[in-house]
Specification:
Radius of gyration of chain B: 33 Å
CATH superfamily of one domain in chain B: Glycogen Phosphorylase B
Oligomer: heterodimer
Number of domains of chain A: 2
Mean pLDDT of chain B: 75
Strand order of the largest sheet of chain A: 1-2
Radius of gyration of chain A: 35 Å
Largest sheet of chain B: 6 strands, parallel
Strand order of the largest sheet of chain B: 3-2-1-4-5-6
Shape of chain A: elongated
Number of strands of chain B: 14
Strand content of chain B: 5-15%
Number of helices of chain B: 25
Structural class of chain A: mainly alpha
Largest sheet of chain A: 2 strands, antiparallel
Strand content of chain A: under 5%
CATH architecture of one domain in chain B: 3-Layer(aba) Sandwich
Number of helices of chain A: 17
C-alpha cells in the first residue's frame, strides 16, 4: 500500500508506519496500554506523542498558553479558558500532566499568568448591523415600485377608456405588492407590526395626493362638473422615491450602528445619532423634491412640491419609527393628517348646504392664499414636523437600535 | 404527587431537546401527575407541534421565549405609575450591580480576601497562607458561591418577580431606555469588572437585550396558586431560563425544586458567545453564573447527567451534598437481539476454547502435575511436623519444624512460580491459538472479524480525519481491516466535512483498479448514511463490527459508545467529555487527536478476540447497570419522594369565609397515586377528608391538556 502513495501527506506517513512496524515487532508498539486481566484497561499514549508537556521544557504551561494564545487573550475569566480548553479536548488527565488537579485549576493558572495590559483598549468589535442592510437585493428591489409605476403611467397614457382603467388598477396593485415586499425586508422592515389603521390611512393619503387637489379646486368653484384631471406626477415621484427612502434608511441604520460601537455613553450616542438622522432625512427630502421636479417636467404637470414633499416626509418618518419599534405615534400622525384632509374636503362640500356656508371659510382662505396644494401640505407638513421632533427624541435612543436576535 | 415539569425548547415539542428523556420519564412514572410548563425556542418549533402526551400529563402551558409577549409596543411603557417604575429601576439596578461586580474572576479574588480576613490578620502576616487554606471549606465553594453577591442577585431577581406579579408583567420595561441607563450606570460604578468598565453603547445594548430575553419568564402568569403554586415539586429539566420559573415558584409558593442538567448552560454560553465583544461576554457570563448559582442555592436536589457537568456545577457554587449524578437512560431492548447473536457466537467460541483448554491440559499434564508432586514432600513434612507438635513437641523440634517449614515454603514457591510461568506461557500460546479459531468463528457468525465501526453525527468535532489516518496505520498491521463510517451529516458544515473525509479516504486508500470486480463491502472504508431507508439497522451495524471506535475531540455524553456497550462490543474511544466515566475500564481509551495511539489500540483489539469479547461482556454488564431507562426513571422517582419528604408543601386551605381549614390537606395527599380517588372503594376516605381534599388545593383533574396551543 505504501508504495502507491504519491501525495506528500501519505508519503509523510510512510516512515512513521515503518517505524511503528519495528516497534511492534519488538513488542513495545502495541502493548503500551496498561492492561490487566480484570478488564480494566486504559491506554496511555507514549509521552513523546502526547500533547502534554515535552520532556525537557521547564515550563509546560507556557507552551500550552502559547498554543492557546487567542483563547487566553480573549478570555474574560478562567472559566472561559476552561470551557475553551475542554472544547479543544483537554481533559483532567491532560491537566494532570501539567501538574494540575483539573482543567479548572490549569485554566486558572493560564488566566492568571497571561499578560494583560489593563490600559490596552479592548479589541474593536465589528459594528453591529441589522440583518438585511448588507444585502444588495433590497437596494435594487427599492427601484421596483418606481419602475412599475412609471410603466403604468406610460401604459395608461397610451391607452384609452376601459383598458386604461384596467391598466391603472393593475398597475396600482403591482406597485402596492412591490412596496409591500420592500417593507418586509431591508432597512425599512422591522420586527414590529404597524399599529392597526396605518395602512388604511396611508392609502387614503396617497389617494388624496392623486385626486384630492383637483377635487378640492372643483369643489370650491362649484363643481365637479365632470372628470377632473388627477395629479400623476406626485404619485410617480413618491413611487420612485421608495429607492432613496430605502437607501437613506439604510444609511441611517449603518451610521448609527457604527456610532453604537464607538460611543461610550448613551448621551454621546444620542448626540451623535441626531445629525445622522437629520442628514438622512434631508437627503431623502432633497431626492424627493428632485424626483418631483423631474416627474413634473416629464409629465407636463405642476409638481406639487409642498403637498407631495410633505407627504413623502411623513411616510418615511412613519415607517422609520414603526420599523424601530414605535408604531403608535406614526399611526396617530397619519390618522390626523388623513382626517384633516378628509375634513377639508368635507367642509367644502358641506358648505353648500343652506346655512353652512361658513364651514368652507378656512379652506377657502388657505387655498386663496397658497392654492389647493396647500391643504395637504399643511396637514402632512404639520404631522411630519411633529413626527420629526418625535423621531429626534426616540430614534436617537440606543434602545431603538437593538438588533432583533429572535430566531423565527 | 403532582410534579411541575419545566422545559425550555424541550419536551412537549416534537423538535425539543431531551424530549425522549422527558417522555420516558413521564411515561415511566405513571403514578405521578405531571404538569408541563414549556418555554418554546422559536416559531418553527411551535409550528412543528407536540409529541403525543400520556394521560398523566394533566396540563400543558407554553410560552414563547423567542419573542416578547407584548409585541406591538416595543418601547411603550407598560409599567403604570411612577412608583412601579421606580421600583423597577431600583431592583434592576441591584441586579445589574450584582452582575457587574464580577463573575468568576473577581468573585475568586474577593473570596480569597474574605478568607484572609476570617482566618488571620489582614495583611498577610505569618501563617496567613496556612490559615487561609484551612479557612476555606474542604469542598470548594465555587466561583459564584460568594454569599453576599448571591444574596444581592437573588434579592434583586425576586424584587423584579414581585413587581412583575403585581403589575401583571414587566412588559417592555426591560427593553426600555431606562434599562439601558441602569446598565450604563452599573458599568461605570467603581468595582465593576475591568472588561465591562469601558463598555460601549452597542455592548450595553447587547447585554440588555440578552438579559431581557433571559428574564422573560418573570412576566408569565404561571405562578398563581392554581398553576405552579399547586404542584408538590418543580422539576426543571435544564438550568438557565428553564429553571427560572421554578425559582419563582419556590419564591412565591415554596415549591421545592429539583434541577437536572445534562449540559452546562454557562459552558455552552462561553462557547456560543466566543465572537462577542469582551464586555458583553464578561457581563453575560457573570449573569449566567449568578443565575446558575442562585438556582443551585435554592434547589433541593441537583442531578447532573455526568461527572463533567457535576464538576462545572460545583464550580458554579452547587453544594456537593445536593448533587446526585443520574446518568441518562437509553433503550437497551433494541440491542438485545444483537447481544443474543453475540452470545451465541461467544458460546460457540467459548466451547471451542474449552475444548482447546482440555487439550492443553492434557498436553500440559507433566508440568501441572509435577508442581503438586514436587511440593508433596514438603507437605508431608509439614503434616508430620504438625502431628509431632500436637503430640507434645520440644523446642528443638519446633526449631526444626520452623526450618523445615521455611525450606519447604521456599521450595513450594519456586515450584509454583515455575509452574505458573509455564502455565502462563502455555495459556498464552493456547489462547492465541484459540483466539485465532474464535475470530474465525466470530467472523463466520457475524462477518465482523476485522471491521471497525464508527457511528454518529458527522461533524468536525468528531475528528473523522484522525480516525482515517489511524485506520491507515491499522491497515498497515491488519491488511484485511475495514472501516465502516455510519452517520448523517449535521448541517452544511457537517456535509462539507463529510465530503472532505470522503476525499481523504479516497486519497489514503486509493483504488487499486479492481474496484469494479470487488463488491462495495470489500472497500477498506465505507461511508453509509444512517437515516437512509435502505440503511441497516443500527443494532445490525454494531453487531457487524469487531471494534467500535469513537474519535471525537469534543463530546458530551457519548451515545454511540453506550449503544456499543449495550451491544457488547469492545470499544476504542478518545478521552473526551464523559467517555472515561461511561466506559469505566470496559474499553480502551486513548488521548484525542492522536491517530497513532488510536491505531495501536485498534490493532491490539483486532488481534485479540478473546480480549475483545471480555471487554464487550464487561461493557454490556456495565451499561445494563448504569445506562438503562429503568435506572434513570427509578432514580428520579426516588429523588421526587426524597425531595417531597424533606420539604413538604404546607398548604393552608381556607373555607368560604376565609377561615383556615384544619386538616384540609390530609397526609395521604402526599402519597403517590390517587388514594382518595373513587377507584379504590376499600380505602374510602372519611367524610371530613373527602369533602375537603378535592376542591381548592387539588382542582379537578383535567384529562385534556389546556393552555395556549392546546387546541392544536
Amino acid at each position: 500500500m505504501n508504495e502507491l502513495h504519491t501525495d506528500p501527506e501519505a508519503t509523510g506517513n510512510a516512515p512513521a508506519t515503518r517505524g511503528r512496524d519495528t516497534g511492534t515487532s519488538s513488542g513495545t508498539g502495541i502493548g503500551t496500554e496498561a492492561s490487566t486481566t480484570d478488564g480494566r484497561e486504559l491506554a496511555t499514549a507514549s509521552p513523546a506523542s502526547a500533547p502534554g508537556p515535552r520532556p525537557g521544557t521547564a515550563d509546560p504551561v507556557k507552551a500550552l498558553m502559547n498554543r492557546h494564545h487567542d483563547l487566553c487573550a480573549r478570555a474574560v475569566d478562567h472559566l472561559e479558558i476552561a470551557a475553551g480548553l475542554e472544547a479543544h479536548g483537554v481533559t483532567d488527565r491532560t491537566a494532570a500532566r501539567f501538574r494540575h488537579r483539573d482543567v479548572f485549576s490549569l485554566a486558572e493558572e493560564m488566566y492568571a499568568r497571561f499578560p494583560r495590559d489593563p490600559d490596552a483598549p479592548p479589541p474593536h468589535p465589528a459594528p453591529a448591523h441589522r440583518p438585511g442592510t448588507g444585502r444588495p437585493a433590497p437596494a435594487l428591489l427599492a427601484l421596483l415600485p418606481g419602475l412599475l409605476c412609471a410603466a403604468t403611467v406610460v401604459a395608461a397614457r397610451s391607452t384609452d377608456g376601459r383598458s386604461r382603467l384596467a391598466l391603472a388598477v393593475l398597475g396600482t396593485l403591482l406597485v402596492g405588492l412591490a412596496v409591500r415586499t420592500l417593507l418586509r425586508r431591508g432597512p425599512l422592515a422591522g420586527p414590529h407590526r404597524a399599529a392597526s389603521g396605518t395602512r388604511g390611512w396611508t392609502f387614503w393619503l396617497l389617494t388624496y395626493a392623486f385626486l384630492g387637489d383637483g377635487l378640492l379646486e372643483e369643489g370650491l368653484t362649484g363643481g365637479p362638473d365632470g372628470p377632473w384631471s388627477p395629479a400623476t406626477a406626485p404619485l410617480l415621484a413618491l413611487a420612485l422615491a421608495c429607492a432613496p427612502a430605502v437607501w437613506c434608511a439604510g444609511l441611517f441604520t449603518a451610521l448609527s450602528g457604527r456610532r453604537l460601537g464607538t460611543s461610550r455613553a448613551l448621551d454621546d450616542f444620542a448626540a451623535s445619532a441626531r445629525p445622522v438622522l437629520l442628514g438622512a432625512f434631508t437627503l431623502f427630502l432633497g431626492a424627493l423634491l428632485g424626483l418631483l421636479a423631474l416627474c413634473g417636467t416629464l409629465l407636463g404637470e405642476h409638481p406639487a412640491y409642498a403637498g407631495a414633499g410633505a407627504l413623502g416626509a411623513l411616510l418615511l418618518l412613519a415607517r422609520l419609527l414603526t420599523a424601530h419599534g414605535f408604531p403608535h405615534a406614526p399611526a396617530v400622525a397619519l390618522a390626523t393628517a388623513g382626517a384633516a384632509e378628509g375634513l377639508s374636503l368635507a367642509t367644502v362640500f358641506a358648505s353648500r348646504l343652506p346655512g353652512c356656508s361658513l364651514l368652507s371659510v378656512p379652506v377657502q382662505t388657505v387655498t386663496d392664499a397658497w392654492g389647493a396644494g396647500s391643504v395637504p401640505a399643511l396637514a402632512c407638513g404639520t404631522a411630519a414636523t411633529v413626527l420629526l421632533l418625535h423621531a429626534t427624541r426616540t430614534l436617537t435612543r440606543a434602545s431603538a437600535h437593538a438588533v432583533p436576535h429572535e430566531p423565527r | 404527587m403532582r410534579i411541575g415539569l419545566l422545559t425550555e425548547g424541550g419536551y412537549p415539542y416534537v423538535s425539543g431537546d431531551a424530549r425522549l428523556w422527558c417522555d420516558r420519564l413521564v411515561r415511566g412514572l405513571a403514578r405521578h401527575e405531571f404538569r408541563v410548563y414549556a418555554l418554546s425556542r422559536s416559531l418553527r418549533q411551535e409550528d412543528e407541534g407536540w409529541m403525543p402526551l400520556p394521560p398523566q400529563v394533566t396540563r400543558v402551558r407554553t410560552a414563547p421565549l423567542w419573542t416578547a409577549v407584548d409585541d406591538g409596543a416595543a418601547h411603550g411603557r407598560d409599567l403604570h405609575g411612577r412608583r412601579a417604575r421606580r421600583r423597577f429601576t431600583e431592583a434592576y439596578a441591584d441586579l445589574a450591580r450584582a452582575v457587574c461586580e464580577g463573575g468568576a474572576a473577581e468573585g475568586r479574588a474577593s473570596r480569597s480576601r474574605g478568607a484572609c480576613a476570617n482566618g488571620c490578620a489582614e495583611d498577610g502576616v505569618n501563617g496567613c497562607t496556612g490559615d487561609c487554606a484551612s479557612a476555606r471549606p474542604s469542598g470548594r465553594t465555587g466561583d459564584y458561591g460568594d454569599d453576599r453577591q448571591a444574596d444581592r442577585f437573588g434579592n434583586a431577581l425576586y424584587a423584579l418577580a414581585d413587581l412583575a406579579r403585581e403589575e401583571g408583567g414587566l412588559g417592555s420595561a426591560l427593553r426600555s431606555e431606562g434599562a439601558l441607563r441602569v446598565w450604563e450606570r452599573a458599568c461605570r460604578t467603581p468595582g465593576t469588572v475591568r472588561t465591562a468598565h469601558g463598555a460601549r453603547v452597542g455592548e450595553l445594548l447587547a447585554v440588555a437585550r440578552h438579559v431581557e430575553r433571559a428574564l422573560r419568564p418573570l412576566s408569565l402568569d404561571w405562578y398563581e396558586d392554581a398553576e405552579l403554586g399547586a404542584v408538590d415539586l418543580c422539576h426543571a429539566t435544564a438550568g438557565g431560563s428553564a429553571a427560572l420559573p421554578a425559582l419563582l415558584a419556590r419564591h412565591f409558593s415554596g415549591v421545592p425544586l429539583l434541577v437536572t442538567e445534562y449540559g452546562v448552560p454557562l459552558r455552552t454560553h462561553y462557547l456560543a458567545t466566543a465572537d462577542a465583544p469582551p464586555a458583553v461576554r464578561a457581563l453575560l457570563a457573570s449573569f449566567h453564573g449568578r443565575l446558575a448559582a442562585e438556582v443551585y442555592r435554592r434547589a433541593a436536589r441537583i442531578t447532573p447527567g455526568n461527572a463533567h457537568v457535576r464538576r462545572w456545577q460545583e464550580h458554579c457554587g452547587a453544594d456537593r451534598a445536593k448533587l446526585r449524578t443520574v446518568y441518562p437512560g437509553m433503550e437497551a431492548s433494541r440491542f438485545a437481539e444483537v447481544v443474543a447473536d453475540v452470545a451465541d457466537a461467544a458460546e460457540w467460541a467459548g466451547s471451542a476454547e474449552r475444548a482447546e483448554r482440555a487439550e492443553r491440559a492434557e498436553r500440559a499434564e507433566p508440568a501441572e502435575t509435577s508442581a503438586p508432586r514436587r511440593s508433596e514432600p514438603g507437605g508431608a513434612a509439614r503434616r508430620a511436623a504438625g502431628a509431632a507438635a500436637t503430640t507434645g513437641g520440644t523446642f528443638e523440634r519446633e526449631a526444626f519444624e520452623r526450618e523445615a517449614f521455611k525450606r519447604e515454603a521456599a521450595e513450594r514457591e519456586a515450584a509454583e512460580r515455575e509452574a505458573f510461568e509455564r502455565e502462563a506461557f502455555e495459556r498464552e500460546a493456547a489462547e492465541r491459538e484459540a483466539a485465532e479459531r474464535e475470530s474465525a468463528a466470530h467472523e463466520s457468525a457475524s462477518g465482523a472479524g476485522d471491521t471497525l465501526v464508527w457511528v454518529g453525527r458527522v461533524e468536525p468535532a468528531k475528528d473523522l480525519v484522525s480516525l482515517l489516518h489511524a485506520f491507515a496505520e491499522v491497515r498497515a498491521h491488519v491488511p484485511t481491516a475495514r472501516l465502516r463510517i455510519v452517520g448523517t451529516a449535521a448541517g452544511a458544515e457537517g456535509r462539507a466535512y463529510l465530503e472532505h473525509c470522503e476525499h481523504l479516504a479516497a486519497r489514503l486508500f486509493p483504488d487499486d483498479g479492481h474496484e469494479d470486480t470487488r463488491p462495495s463491502g470489500d472497500r477498506p472504508v465505507s461511508f453509509e448514511e444512517a437515516g437512509a431507508p435502505d440503511a441497516p439497522d443500527l443494532a445490525a451495524v454494531y453487531a457487524a463490527g469487531a471494534v467500535v471506535v469513537l474519535s471525537s475531540v469534543v463530546e458530551g455524553f457519548p451515545v454511540s459508545l453506550v449503544e456499543a456497550m449495550f451491544c457488547g462490543r469492545a470499544t476504542v474511544s478518545t478521552d473526551v467529555g464523559a467517555v472515561v466515566e461511561v466506559i469505566g475500564g470496559t474499553g480502551l481509551v486513548v488521548p484525542p487527536r492522536e491517530p497513532a495511539a488510536l491505531a495501536r489500540a485498534c490493532v491490539a483489539l483486532l488481534r485479540d478476540p478473546a480480549r475483545r469479547r471480555r471487554l464487550g461482556e464487561a461493557a454490556r454488564a456495565r451499561a445494563l447497570e448504569l445506562f438503562t431507562v429503568e435506572q434513570n426513571v427509578m432514580a428520579f422517582d426516588g429523588l421526587y419522594l426524597d425531595v417531597v419528604s424533606h420539604s413538604p408543601r404546607r398548604r393552608v386551605l381556607v373555607d368560604d369565609r376565609g377561615a383556615p381549614l384544619p386538616f384540609g390537606t390530609p397526609a395521604e395527599a402526599r402519597l403517590p397515586g390517587n388514594w382518595t380517588g373513587p377507584r379504590r372503594p376499600l380505602r374510602r376516605a372519611p367524610l371530613w377528608a373527602s369533602d375537603t381534599t378535592t376542591p381548592p388545593a387539588a382542582p379537578a383533574q383535567r384529562p385534556e391538556p389546556v393552555g395556549e396551543g392546546a387546541a392544536r
